[in-house]
Amino acid sequence: MPSSHPGSRPPRARPAPEQAGFTLVELLVALVISGILATVIFESLLGQSRFARLQGARQEVQQNSRAALDLIGAELRGVAPRGLITAEPQSISFRSPRIWGVACGYLAGSLVVLFPSYAGDEGIPAGLRLAVESPAAGGWAFTSATGAPGSAALVTCNGQAGLGGVAPSPAATAERVRVYGGSSFPSDVAPGSRVYLYQSVSYAVGAGTGSSAGEQWILRDGTAFAGPVPANGLQLAYEYSGAGSGPDNVRSIGITVLANSRARFGQNRTPQDNTASTRIFLRNRVD
Fold it and tell me: Is 106 a member of any domain?
């Protein structure tokens, strides 16, 4: 009989060679499966990140193209008769009305104008130029005159100077009246004629103030406001009325805006793009 000593432990059995080999195989299989799972999870997360970037880029170009189209269209809808200055396939300039008014009549050789709807206490903003209905100019005359405060001419605008067609107006306050004149200013503006103050606005594509290096943007008066866009990012198609083909004969304008995303995708580094189009009918014609 084998001898035994109090407190001694029986010897531990060694694993059979087959059992040790099976454990190693299991470990290798577990490592391979773990590697596959890690790869699948990584590719899934990477795919979700790419999808999110793609969706963000699509949303970016959609918002840019629609916002540019809405702004350009809104300003063109407000263009008054003979308001277009130039009408090119990828650029346009026009006179954008800011404040409408009425001619009161002449006072000491200068035209007195009332802007009834203006509510600013500081007076008419400086820098806006005056457009007036003038028969001698063929309907409308566009001046470079910015005017001067006309508090001294309130009696004229209130119909107290014997001017026909101009009724007394409680809106005739010092802040709403201006006086315009000069050697080249029209002298045939009838009392009661429509007038408005305008700002010259232009849209084109280029690298203007506010755009990043190497990018083309839609420019408003030389300042980048929508983009980036390709070189043909603003397309303008004109429909003419009558025999003429100049700016005064434009009846409607088809506007197309193409926008690119700043993010690039794929081996060719291709941006996402979006196209938005509309057609604007103008009050531009003078019939």
Answer: yes
pLDDT digits (tens, 9 = 90+) for 37-92: 888 787 777 767 776 766 776 777 788 888 889 999 999 998 988 889 999 999 99
What is residue 209's three-state secondary structure? strand
- The number of domains in the chain is 2
| 222, 248 Cβ separation under 8 angstroms | no
Full residue range of the structural domain in which residue 223 is found: 57-91+200-281
106 and 112 Cβ atoms separated by less than 8 Å: yes
- How many Cβ atoms are within 10 Å of 102's Cβ, its own excluded? 19
Statement to judge: residues 146 and 276 lie in one domain: no
> What is the value of pTM for the model shown?
0.74
Q: What DSSP state is assigned to residue 258?
A: E
Q: Residue 80 has which token pair? A: 């008054």
Return d(Cα 136, Cα 141) in angstroms, integer.
8
